[in-house]
Design goal:
Helix content: 25-40%
Strand order of the largest sheet: 12-13-14-15-16-17-18-19
Strand content: 15-25%
Number of helices: 24
Shape: globular
Distance between the termini: 64 Å
Radius of gyration: 29 Å
Length: 817
């Protein structure tokens, strides 16, 4: 719902879980600066926590602290009344007529009513309803220094659409910030999640696929896990535990070793038994771990019995991650027996070989399904940024600060309807904070407009005056990632908008980590574009120098090209780059974001440390310099000229030919797309972009920095398909070819993942059988049978040996003379 300082929507009816509203005229304001918070007697612990949250969060935003009373102040004195509806009506009978009973039995729901001259009522249907009602009020209030107010015509009655709305908050070494948070930061973040309707957090045990320690830990992992569980208990929300099956060496369990199995069960019992609250245990089928279903199910059954000795009402959930072929068949066959110890199933965007709709269809109806969707990564993930520009991918990389509100809504509406129970998202830190709020708000009411969610986000977490500008800035940051960076002039406009906010923002906003995150991205994006423009111009100048080789000689041409590629004394956007580094330091101090491995001890570059990648080459300059070194070793001038011609004509397929770069959305007109992004945001049925990680990145890679940039980018077909890993073909379609012509195909295969690929034409002509991919410095070339093009149309189809090996970078269709 849209609420601003000037207009409100008044809710008039229930329909399902969504709020129904009509636009109201601009309303008067209720001044709540001198209000009291009125509470009925006998509040439960979580309800008292909700009241404390409301008082303290109002004070943080306005410096106004409401006193708490148990009696209604005299008429004319402003008051905010908070509690369960039944308790409020019992304690203050006059309020009954202001609180309609319609929908009051809906779990976790609430009503908010504002009445002139100065009354605000927040009535929860139950204890959680009190908590979420208090959170919603925090989103509605207008704040300024020393003042608080609310529109006078608020009438809201609402309850959530999905039962489970949560986020994983693993305190472990690999995260980009969580491992540096103390208890106070965790409590604040729990509040922030609750404000947007989250009712669960999911912790991770000390033994996972992580290092045992982090230089940032303020507390040992198990103690912090206990604190997370305690916080959930105090706020009355659910505490889930994601617990992978690993042995004490953090390796996959050897099910054939009874001692290892016994040790795993013992360790699980000791950890879970120390937690004050466990509402549910989620055991992934893999990622990490290797768990044959026929052994996996009995192990978790034993764990379920052990768990319920400590937490009798705890639920047990499983996912089918990494299962393929027979393993997936075994998984669904075992579900047919409907084991009583199992509560429900989890569909994950990472590693589940069955799409969300088919997964729900094949799971017995007695079991609910929840989602486990990756909202934290931007590439090499379940929901990558569509057609992401190479400059972003190679620098900002996998775990960048990634507000993607529009994309997240697309993803939510595509997969969430197949998970009837709700969701807990997969997160590795606070880089995805905006996305968390979007998922929480949509899980409460799927009809909520994305723009209204980010407006609430800006008003609630930044300030009332800057809320609209910040919200639009977040949407602009997402637009920065749309289309080719080199032509996206909006990137500089986005920075200018944030710089204006930066100039006018008060000190508390400048110190706000959410504001700092958005600034970091805005400056980083603009610096990248400035450098991309400069480096592209340098490369173009170098190519012009090479085109004069026959006139001035190869040696002189290459020397001139080298000089053209030298960076200027002061790089493009140097001041913006300096500000990025300042903001990285500010974020480490404010929220412990680890944006660099050497500076801030991030666990790895791909774990959010994109400050270390900010100067990564964006042009072909490293490749060109290497080519010049090799050409200079050639003895004869004709050979050197021929080599330079190959550089100049790399993308030229010759007369009647075609070139496609399958890593560039603007240079692959023949790629068969199949399905629109909105219908397939996980790219299970349509090709998606991929990027190769250079060898100098932490975690390895398969190409050196000196490789030609076109070799780093590719299209691929994901293996997450209804056929359990049998990847559909990657296809290219050419029309209007010369029926009498002879054609050859040249191809460069990407090697981000090893494996074998095969190529056929028009579904019946084998161009080459399965071959093992290798790092290529030149294209492979194959003849196309004349029969394949005799009809004037050619469909090339690549298939793979399995996994993520089906990756194609560049394709030339060359017409023979």
């Amino acid at each position: 719902m849209k609420f601003t300082a000037f207009s409100l929507f008044a809710v008039i009816a229930f329909s399902g879980s969504a709020e129904r509203a009509v636009a109201a005229a601009p309303s008067a304001k209720i001044d709540l600066t001198r209000a009291s918070l009125v509470l009925p007697a006998g509040l439960s612990g979580p309800e008292k926590k909700a009241a404390l949250m409301l008082v303290e969060e109002v004070e943080k935003r306005s410096l106004v602290r409401w006193p708490t009373v148990e009696a209604l102040p005299e008429t004319g004195q402003p008051r905010v009344v908070l509690g369960q509806r039944t308790a409020l009506v019992r304690a203050f009978p006059a309020l009954a007529e202001k609180l309609p009973a319609d929908g009051a039995d809906r779990a976790e729901g609430y009503q908010i009513v504002s009445l002139l001259p100065g009354t605000v009522i927040v009535a929860g249907n139950d204890a959680r309803g009190v908590l979420f009602g208090a959170g919603r009020l925090l989103r509605l209030l207008d704040y300024s220094r020393g003042a608080v107010s609310l529109a006078s015509d608020v009438k809201i009655a609402t309850a959530p659409r999905y039962r489970l709305r949560g986020h994983q908050v693993g305190y472990r070494a690999k995260t980009n910030s969580y491992d540096g948070w103390d208890i106070a930061k965790w409590e604040q973040y729990v509040r922030d999640l609750v404000i947007f309707g989250a009712n669960a957090i999911e912790g991770i045990p000390p033994l996972s696929d992580d290092a045992a320690d982090s230089p940032h830990f303020p507390l040992p992992p198990l103690r912090m896990m206990r604190e997370q569980s305690r916080l959930a208990q105090e706020y009355g929300i659910a505490y889930w535990v994601w617990y992978p099956v690993l042995n004490r060496s953090r390796k996959p369990l050897n099910y054939d070793d009874p001692a290892e199995v016994a040790a795993v069960l013992k360790d699980w019992g000791e950890v879970l038994g120390q937690l004050p609250q466990v509402d549910a245990l989620f055991v992934p089928g893999g990622d990490p771990g290797r768990n044959p279903p026929k052994q996996f199910f009995p192990l978790v059954a034993q764990q379920a019995a052990q768990l319920r000795k400590h937490h009798p009402k705890a639920e047990v959930w499983l996912s089918a991650q990494t299962f393929t072929g027979d393993g997936m068949d075994d998984f669904f066959e075992l579900l047919k027996s409907e084991p009583a110890w199992l509560t429900g199933l989890v569909w994950s965007s990472s590693g589940t070989a069955v799409p969300a709709d088919e997964f729900r269809a094949r799971v017995p109806r007695r079991y609910p399904v929840r989602n486990y969707n990756d909202i934290t990564h931007s590439v090499l993930c379940g929901f990558p940024v569509p057609e992401w520009d190479f400059a972003f991918a190679v620098t900002q990389h996998r775990e960048v600060i990634n507000p993607r509100p529009v994309d997240q809504a697309i993803i939510f509406r595509n997969v969430q309807p197949h998970a009837d129970h709700g969701m807990i998202t997969y997160s590795e830190g606070c880089n995805d904070d905006v996305n968390k709020s979007v998922w929480s708000a949509l899980a409460w009411d799927p009809e909520t407009a994305v723009t209204d969610i980010v407006r609430d986000y800006g008003r609630t977490f930044i300030s009332t005056p800057l809320g609209e500008g910040f919200a639009q800035g977040l949407l602009a940051l997402e637009r920065n990632w749309r289309g080719p960076l080199i032509s996206n002039e909006g990137v500089f406009t986005t920075l200018a908008q944030f710089q204006e906010m930066e100039r006018t923002a008060p000190a508390p906003v400048l110190a706000n980590w959410r504001f700092q995150q958005a600034l970091y991205r805005a400056y980083y994006d603009a610096f990248l574009r400035a450098r991309l423009l400069a480096e592209t111009a340098q490369e173009n100048e170098a190519m012009e120098c090479l085109r004069r080789a026959r006139e001035i000689g190869t040696g002189a041409a290459m020397n001139a090209a080298r000089l053209a590629l030298e960076p200027p004394p002061v790089g493009a956007g140097a001041a913006w780059r300096a500000r990025v580094f300042e903001l990285a330091e500010a974020l480490f101090q404010s929220i412990r974001m680890q944006l660099s491995v050497p500076r801030y001890k991030a666990s790895a570059v791909q774990r959010g440390a994109n400050l270390d990648l900010i100067d990564s080459p964006l042009s072909n300059a490293p490749w060109l310099r290497l080519q010049f070194d090799e050409i200079a070793l050639l003895a004869a001038e004709p050979a050197r000229l021929a080599a330079i011609d190959r550089i100049l004509n790399w993308t030229n397929p010759g007369p009647g030919g075609f070139y496609d770069h399958l890593g560039d959305a603007n240079a692959m007109p023949h790629l068969v797309r199949r399905v629109a992004y909105a219908d397939d945001p996980s790219f299970t049925r349509s090709p998606r972009f991929g990027f190769i990680v250079p060898k100098s990145f932490s975690g390895g890679g398969t190409l050196p920095w000196q490789a030609r940039r076109s070799s780093w980018r590719y299209s691929e077909m994901a293996a997450h398909t209804p056929t359990h890993g049998a990847t559909p073909p990657l296809e290219m379609l050419y029309r209007d070819l010369d029926p009498k012509g002879r054609y050859r195909v040249r191809v460069i295969y990407a090697t981000e993942n090893p494996g074998q690929v095969a190529l056929t034409a028009n579904e019946r002509f084998e161009i080459h059988p399965l071959i093992t991919k290798t790092v290529q410095t030149a294209p492979l070339e194959f003849e196309i049978p004349p029969e394949a093009t005799a009809g004037g149309e050619l469909r090339l189809a690549w298939t793979s040996s399995g996994g993520r090996s089906l990756q194609v970078a560049e394709v030339w269709l060359v017409r023979s003379p």
